[in-house]
Amino acid sequence: MSMFTRFVEPGRLAVITYGPCAGKVCTVVDIVDQKRVVVDGPSSVTGVARHMMPVKRLSLTDFKAAIPRGAREKTLKLALEKESILKKWSETSWGKKLQAKETRAKMTDFDRFKLMVAKKKRSALVKKALKKK
Amino acid sequence: MGKFTLDPSLQMKMHQYQIVGRAAPTPKNPTPKIYRMRMFAKNKVLAKSRFWYFMKKLNKAKKSGGELLAVNELFDRGPTKVKNYGVWLRYESRTDTHNMYKEFRDISINGAISQLYQEMAGRHRAQAGSIQIIHATAIPASACRRDHVTEMHDSGLKYPVITKLPLVAKKLRTTYKASRPMTFVR
């Protein structure tokens, strides 16, 4: 039994936790040294262009695409699609949480108002159901 | 999706310039020898200054009696590909002048040179003014000599993240925390 299950390796899906891309997912494509890796969204999928990034700013996930080191964007995209990794990712609770956070941040004032109204409706129904008993 | 913006903190501070110049033509010497140099500097001004520093040593030409024929910035090919860089340099320590060869792994030569200046300052207390870069180039993996570079060449290379300190957005950083950070990672 090894101690670690998640490694910094080509194909590893990771969440960016800091910087302009914070909150987006990306894939490790190549390793520069012990501190830095090259990541790629690919930009057409997650909006992260291929660039170098410190490992410090990444959180590794359980998913890994089968790609060789320094794979091209096309290969990476195919590998991600083949195992439907991003779909699997969006089904995990971590992925859902990030998604919820993003939708919440994107809400307009009117959206928040609609949310408030919906919440009120729901609590009214709950209260009503509880009172009956 | 808008234009992708790279975090400025990830961008390299060094730039590579190509500078072509010569001593100004005189009736005595109407066609002075033309020199072309690849300079690494933070900006164009410093690069030009460094060019004249070397020109003074090479021949009788300085800024006041010379002319620049071209100053261009050079950009790397394949700025998303990891490469090995070999740098031959000369630097002046407190006691003597030394020649050195160093290797770096980076995606651009500017990054490698930035690393070089950091390392020379850290390990040898040598500042930029006392370092002369003789030659800097990308080298194939087979030509690499330094362990810290060759150990990254394994095609099945992987390593775990052992501990992690949370990186908090700057405006949310505080001196005192309510709870200890979770540094454990799987």
TrEMBL record, chain A:
Assigned keywords, A-Z: Ribonucleoprotein, Ribosomal protein
InterPro entries in the record: Rib_uL2_dom2, Ribosomal_eL14, Ribosomal_eL14_dom, Translation_prot_SH3-like_sf
Coiled coil (UniProt feature): none
Chain segments annotated as transmembrane: none
Signal peptide: none
Highest taxon in the source lineage: Eukaryota
Domain Large ribosomal subunit protein eL14: 50-122
Family: Belongs to the eukaryotic ribosomal protein eL14 family.
Protein name from the UniProt record: Large ribosomal subunit protein eL14 domain-containing protein
UniProt source species: Prorocentrum cordatum
UniProtKB/TrEMBL annotation, chain B:
Disulfide bond is among the record's keywords: no
Domain of life (superkingdom): Eukaryota
SUPFAM superfamilies in UniProt: RplX-like (SSF160374)
Keywords (A to Z) from UniProt: Ribonucleoprotein, Ribosomal protein
Family annotation (InterPro entries): Ribosomal_eL20, Ribosomal_eL20_dom, Ribosomal_eL20_eukaryotes
Chain ranges of the Large ribosomal subunit protein eL20 domain: 14-134
Gene3D superfamilies: 3.10.20.10
Family: Belongs to the eukaryotic ribosomal protein eL20 family.
Protein name: 60S ribosomal protein L18a
Annotated source species: Prorocentrum cordatum
